[in-house]
Amino acid sequence: MKVLIACEQSGTVRDAFIAAGHDAMSCDLLPSDKPGPHYQGDVLDVLWDGWDLMIAHPPCTYLASMGIWWNHKRPERWPLTYAAQNFVGELWNAPIGKIAIENPIGYLNKHWQKPTQIIHPWQHGHEANKPTCLWLKGLESLTPTQIVGKGEFYVKANGHRMSVWSHKQSGTNKVKRAKIASVTFQGIADAMAAQWGSL
Q1: Cα 158 from chain centroid?
Q2: For position 172, what pLDDT does the model report?
Q3: CA-to-CA distance for 127 and 156, rounded, in angstroms?
Q4: In this structure, which of 30, 40, 105, 163 has its CB flanked by the most CB atoms within 10 Å?
Q5: Can you tell me the distance from the alpha carbon of 177 to that of 155, in angstroms, rounded to the nearest whole number?
Q6: Are 52 and 95 in contact (CB under 8 A)?
């Protein structure tokens, strides 16, 4: 398939699809962290290029629950939340048959639509708890590939919550922490490539 990975700087999902034999390209306003097919620019420029599948990771700064918490303290941020939601809508309405949009729990759940499913890294081989929403069009829900320990209860009791994991990796550097948190876990990327790439 011809696959577009929108709003991805790390190249993790892109490379998982390439490894599975697909023609995949990532796109972001910033350059790719790793060599590979990458369009540096606005993803809206390339939406009409004949993609079979798009997996989009729109920025969550103004959509995640913490972003909305800040909005109540700084109301001037609300227009940026509305703009972020409109961007998600443009991605969702792209002329592509199979679409997945990924974002944390937050504004979209209540003010756009309920997610198709919520996935966790611990369902795909990682000892980490990071609830992640997926809105799917023309795609089946992801099936867990490797549940760590005893699942969510185990991770909460003995593993690392995503916030702890992220701080542990990056210290108090907020910019570095945000970048680390935005990278898709390898197990989830591999599951996307294996399951959605076989449709």
Answers
A1: 25
A2: 56
A3: 10
A4: 105
A5: 21
A6: no
